[in-house]
């Protein structure tokens, strides 16, 4: 094999064309190319290799063989049995005939190589053309995708600006709502009126601190039913009145008495939404203990006046008693003048007054 192939110096290679000796490379390439065109045995003649100062004719054969998922060729080299050409340095007149044959063979080999190179070039041009068309198609796709991305970027930028504006508006609204909520919270906390806010299922939504004096309630009770709360006052109609307010939308007021003796006006109003719907019930407890004390004092004064009137109209009373009895008058001193009800006083005809 060393007569036809030689190991080149440098890096190892598996390229058989690079390993072929001078004079065999062109014919070997031609044999392989022709074998690729059809699954038949191809023999190429006219190759020459220099050996011991002489040109030796060589026949090259290429045969396609089946491989594992790849195309393989079996190549063989054998010396042409025709007589060898004369020595390279022989007299020119003795080698003219051989030189003409050699030139013709080289010309034929060159022609075949040219045709093979042309076919390879055409094939490469077709592949390059297909690659260029595919690249142009991919480039158009990329350009279209880029335009879509630019459009999407502009849309996202516009949407981002709108979201930023909406976020600013929402932030302002939240701040306003927070301020309103704080104001309402302070108002509810500053009032002494115990207030409960219930939803449509009579569950606790909110309560003022004053409600803790009438209910055993804490912050974690929000969401619990009103019926679960322990009350510190007597009110058998609390739940039934709440249901009645939900169904009739009519307010209900009752007087209730706490366990410590304090009196309250218990008012119930429907909790209305912006669309005039009913979302629950509002229960308020306004203290009326002073008013109740005033009523008791008025009743006591009336009883005292009745007793005085009866005394002056009795048979044992003199004429002066009967004459002056109709001049007695009861005067109630309002509680807002003295801070509390002081009772009653009456005035006699002489202008003297007495307190009860």
Describe this structure in words.
By secondary structure, this protein is an alpha+beta fold. It folds into four domains: 1-90, no CATH class; 93-190; 193-287, PAS domain (Beta-Lactamase), CATH 3.30.450; 292-355. The protein is built from seven helices and 14 strands. The protein has helices at residues 16-19, 25-37, 96-190, 238-248, 289-312, 319-325, 335-338; strands spanning 42-51, 54-66, 71-79, 194-199, 204-207, 215-216, 230-231, 233-234, 252-258, 263-272, 278-287, 330-332, 344-347, 353-355. The strands form four sheets. Strands 5-4-11-10-9-8 form a six-stranded antiparallel sheet. A three-stranded antiparallel sheet has the order 1-2-3. A three-stranded antiparallel sheet has the order 12-13-14, covered by helices on one side. Strand 13 and strand 14 (353-355) form a beta hairpin. Helix 2 (25-37) crosses helix 3. Mean pLDDT is 79; it is low at 85-95 and 318-356.
Sequence-ordered SSE layout with sheet pairings:
Layout: H1 16-19, H2 25-37, E1 42-51, E2 54-66, E3 71-79, H3 96-190, E4 194-199, E5 204-207, E6 215-216, E7 230-231, E8 233-234, H4 238-248, E9 252-258, E10 263-272, E11 278-287, H5 289-312, H6 319-325, E12 330-332, H7 335-338, E13 344-347, E14 353-355
Antiparallel strand pairs: 1-2, 2-3, 4-5, 4-11, 6-7, 8-9, 9-10, 10-11, 12-13, 13-14
Helix pairs in contact: 2-3
Distance linking N and C termini: 150 Å
Q: Which H/E pattern describes the elements?
A: HHEEEHEEEEEHEEEHHEHEE
Largest sheet, strands/sense/barrel: 6 strands, antiparallel
What's the overall geometry? rod-shaped
Report Rg: 61 Å
Structural class: alpha+beta
The helical percent reads 40-55%
- Helices, by number, come to 7
Estimate what percentage of residues fall within beta strands: 15-25%
Strand order of the largest sheet: 5-4-11-10-9-8
How confident overall, as mean pLDDT?
Answer: 79
Tell me the count of domains: 4
How many strand segments? 14
Which runs of at least 5 residues are low in confidence (pLDDT < 50)? 85-95, 318-356
């Amino acid at each position: 094999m060393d007569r036809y192939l030689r190991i080149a110096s440098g890096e190892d290679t598996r390229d058989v064309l690079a390993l072929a000796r001078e004079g065999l490379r062109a014919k070997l390439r031609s044999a392989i190319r022709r074998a690729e065109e059809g699954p038949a045995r191809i023999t190429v003649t006219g190759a020459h290799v220099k050996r011991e100062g002489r040109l030796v004719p060589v026949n090259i054969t290429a045969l396609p063989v089946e491989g594992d998922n790849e195309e393989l060729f079996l190549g063989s080299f054998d010396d042409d049995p025709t007589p060898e050409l004369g020595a390279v340095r022989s007299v020119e007149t003795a080698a003219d005939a051989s030189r003409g044959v050699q030139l013709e063979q080289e010309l034929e080999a060159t022609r075949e190589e040219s045709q093979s190179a042309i076919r390879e070039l055409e094939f490469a041009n077709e592949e390059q053309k297909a690659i260029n068309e595919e690249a142009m198609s991919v480039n158009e796709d990329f350009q279209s995708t880029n335009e879509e991305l630019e459009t999407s970027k502009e849309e996202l930028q516009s949407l981002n600006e709108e979201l930023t504006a909406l976020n600013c508006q929402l932030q302002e609204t939240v701040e306003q709502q927070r301020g309103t909520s704080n104001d309402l919270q302070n108002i509810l906390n500053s009032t002494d009126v115990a207030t409960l806010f219930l939803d449509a299922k009579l569950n606790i939504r909110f309560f003022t601190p004053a409600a803790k004096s009438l209910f055993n309630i804490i912050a974690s009770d929000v969401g619990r039913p009103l019926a679960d709360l322990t009350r510190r006052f007597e009110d058998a109609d609390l739940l039934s009145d709440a249901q009645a307010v939900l169904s009739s939308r009519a307010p209900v007021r009752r007087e209730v008495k706490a366990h410590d003796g304090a009196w309250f006006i218990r008012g119930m109003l429907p909790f209305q939404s912006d669309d005039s719907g009913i979302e629950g019930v509002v229960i308020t407890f306004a203290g009326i203990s002073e008013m109740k004390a005033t009523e008791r004092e008025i009743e006591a004064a009336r009883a005292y006046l009745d007793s005085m009137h009866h005394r002056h109209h009795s048979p044992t009373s003199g004429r002066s008693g009967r004459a002056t009895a109709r001049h007695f008058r009861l005067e109630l001193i309002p509680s807002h003048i003295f801070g509390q009800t002081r009772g009653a006083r009456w005035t006699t005809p002489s202008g003297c007054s007495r307190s009860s």
